[in-house]
Design a protein that fits this description.
Strand order of the largest sheet: 2-1-3-8-7-4-5-6
Structural class: alpha/beta
Order of helices and strands: EHEHEEEEEHE
Distance between the termini: 29 Å
Largest sheet: 8 strands, parallel
Low-confidence stretches: none
Mean pLDDT: 86
Radius of gyration: 15 Å
Shape: globular
Number of strands: 8
């Protein structure tokens, strides 16, 4: 009852995402069909997330869909991703959305950092245990790009696979949330085969 699903992508992908919501027993949801304008699509997702009155659970092909869904006032964002999506000079997309986010952003599990940015902190797989638990925030928005997982666990994305196992990912999330409230969840890059 606490969750509201927001599904973003082409219709055949959204239909598969609905099955995930059924499995999770999330009965209320909205669908956002992606268009050619990535920024407007992400802004639509953000408006739905902020007005739904529940915890948003965003499932999308594009990781950028969560950009405007984070309640910045008292929250930080933890992004699990094998590729850091912060390319300088790129138009708004999956390749650059982290540059658009306000507030503190922490990227965990990345094996490659393209362009460093001052408001983003990076933790490669071997550095994750150094993630500070004492960051001054009341709530966390957690975003998981499934390419952060090892290839033996998932191949349904368009990128190189990361170095985390699902168990390690789960333990890290529990550790981070042990001291703060979850204010939203995003799962990205799952392309149902």
């Amino acid at each position: 009852d606490d969750w509201f699903g927001i599904l973003a992508g082409p219709p055949h992908v959204v239909d598969a995402y609905k099955l995930i919501l059924q499995h999770l027993k999330v009965n209320r949801f909205a669908c956002v069909t992606e268009t050619e304008n990535s920024r407007e699509d992400a802004e639509r997702v953000g408006k739905i997330a902020k007005s739904c009155g529940k915890l948003p659970l965003i499932i999308s092909l594009g990781h950028h869909m969560m950009t405007f869904a984070v309640p910045v006032e008292s929250s930080s964002t933890v992004v699990f991703d094998n590729h850091v999506d912060n390319h300088k000079g790129s138009r708004f997309s999956c390749a650059s959305f982290l540059r658009q986010m306000r507030g503190d952003v922490y990227v965990l599990g990345c094996t490659r950092v393209f362009d460093e940015d001052s408001h983003i902190s990076y933790f490669r797989p071997e550095q994750i245990d150094l993630f500070p638990l004492n960051i001054p925030t009341k709530s966390m928005f957690v975003s998981i790009d499934i390419d952060v997982l090892k290839k033996e666990y998932t191949r349904h994305h368009f990128w190189d696979s990361g170095l985390l196992s699902p168990d390690r990912l789960k333990k890290i999330i529990y550790r981070i949330l042990s001291r703060r409230m979850l204010c939203g969840l995003n799962v990205a890059s799952y392309y149902p085969a």
